[in-house]
Amino acid sequence: MDYKNYTVYENANGIEIRGIKDFDLGHIFDCGQSFRWLKQQDGSYIGIVGDKVSRVRFEDNILHISNSNFDDFVNIWYDYFDLGTDYGEIKKILCQKDEIMSQAIPFGQGIRLLRQDIWELLISFIISANNRIPRIMKSVEALSQNFGRKISSEEGQFYTFPSAEALSSCPLEQIELCKAGFRCKYIHKTSEMIRKGVVNLSTLNEMTTDEARNELIKLSGVGRKVADCILLFSGTKFDVFPTDVWIKRIMEVLYFKKEATLKEIDQFSKDHFGSLSGYAQQYLFFFARETRIS
After folding, report:
1. pTM value > 0.85
2. Regions of the chain short of the pLDDT cut 50
3. How does DSSP assign 191-203, residue by residue?
């Protein structure tokens, strides 16, 4: 069956999608945008999206997704993997910006910005503040195990990400079981704010980038960098340039050749990368990590 330039075959194990370009699971899952995919010894990844547990692998330009059918591809995976975006064109435009981007992009040529659930991203990136990816993943998983819904699958036992109602209705002491440290009080407070409607996550895509960012910053534990990550990795806004200490240093080494303020970096990304700032940030992050720029 065909769907928007892709051919999808159903089989006993799931689906195979052909026609995919600019795609690498390692680049996608190992660049810090998602925390619920576990790499397996055979190079595949097992994870949960919503209440769908699947194993994905990409071989010979064919994307294999277990526990899925054609309807799942249309309703879940097409958007989740951002398969409607022409990354070849994005890379072409960015490579024309400067020589640095021309050097950086081949290192992460298969990156795609996942369109993830914004509520799950909100809590995950609150946990990410001043934290390492393995610990973030453990805390997100602990939250899911304690407050999510159990799902049994061929790949094992998994848990859905808990709702705002579930996290806000339990005592803070229970949330502290996820071992997210000082971030637990932010998780509890933000969950309560979302439940009460202080911020409506579903309306952010109707706002300008600045408006959406400022709306998120109202939430406990959310600063500018976390807000930008939430907007970018949910597919809400692509003209953001999430900047932490690591990205700041990368920009100083590669572009400024001196120390730069966050304001200077923000203005540079707007002027230089424009609406493609989020994509540029991911290529630069991956390039710096792979080449050990520090």
Report:
1. yes
2. none
3. HHHHHHTSS-GGG
